[in-house]
Amino acid sequence: MTIQGQIVVITGASSGIGAALAEAFAQQGARVALLARRGERLERLAARLGAEHTLAIPTDVADFAAVMQAQAQVLARWGQVHVLVNNAGVYPPDGPLWQTSPEEWRHTLDTNVNGVFYCMRAFLPAMLEQGYGRIINVSSSMVETPGAAAYSLSKNAVDVMTAILAKELRSAHKDIIVSSLDPGWVHSEMSPDAPDDPRTVVPRALELAALPKGAPSGKKWRA
Ligand SMILES: NC(=O)c1ccc[n+]([C@@H]2O[C@H](COP(=O)([O-])OP(=O)(O)OC[C@H]3O[C@@H](n4cnc5c(N)ncnc54)[C@H](OP(=O)(O)O)[C@@H]3O)[C@@H](O)[C@H]2O)c1
Known about the structure:
Elements: E1 7-11, H1 16-27, E2 31-36, H2 39-49, E3 54-58, H3 64-78, E4 83-86, H4 102-130, E5 133-138, H5 149-170, E6 176-182, H6 202-209, E7 219-222
The protein binds NADP nicotinamide-adenine-dinucleotide phosphate (NAP).
């Protein structure tokens, strides 16, 4: 399957890597649902990419009811979903575990872990029904980093969810492939000091979105 004409859902599409991926998928001829909390940014991006093949859906991925509303909007507009890119994420202030505020800890796991689970929980049934799907969970190389316990834990959880879901799908749903993607260190609101452009993530993301049936599932890739 090529990306042309596919329905792609991207979370965290209001900036950084998510916005770069949204642009790239739209340029490949995909229909792209843009999810994030800042609706105005999504509207501006949708207008720039072409309103006829984009859908801006202000959504807090940490809120399952909101994610289900987004799913309903995508299915009402296009009836299917082929690719889900779980990219939304937050990075809390650096500091040792014992100084991390419980609120920051919860917020990080709510967004980076529960948000990924909620989106897979919401969009997988349509993929199962159509017998096709590609899920890309944006992870990190920071999985055991001192000073970033909550973030590291959250990205470990993303990798574990990816691996477990792949095993669950393996026997009966071979054409649904789930991947973790470490994007490298790229310039964004989260990483203002990083050297690389978020567009460096595009080639690998497009490749994972178009993996052929039988390709490895549950694997962690580097951009
Ligand atoms: N940049 C790097 O070097 C790097 C390295 C490794 C991994 N990553 C991962 O790459 C992903 C994208 O990060 P980025 O670097 O592009 O940073 P970014 O520019 O800060 O983008 C984060 C995106 O997530 C969205 N988001 C945050 N909380 C959300 C929520 N509750 N609901 C919906 N959307 C939410 C933000 O949009 P709103 O604020 O509008 O909601 C924004 O669009 C993250 O998962 C991050 O952990 C980045």
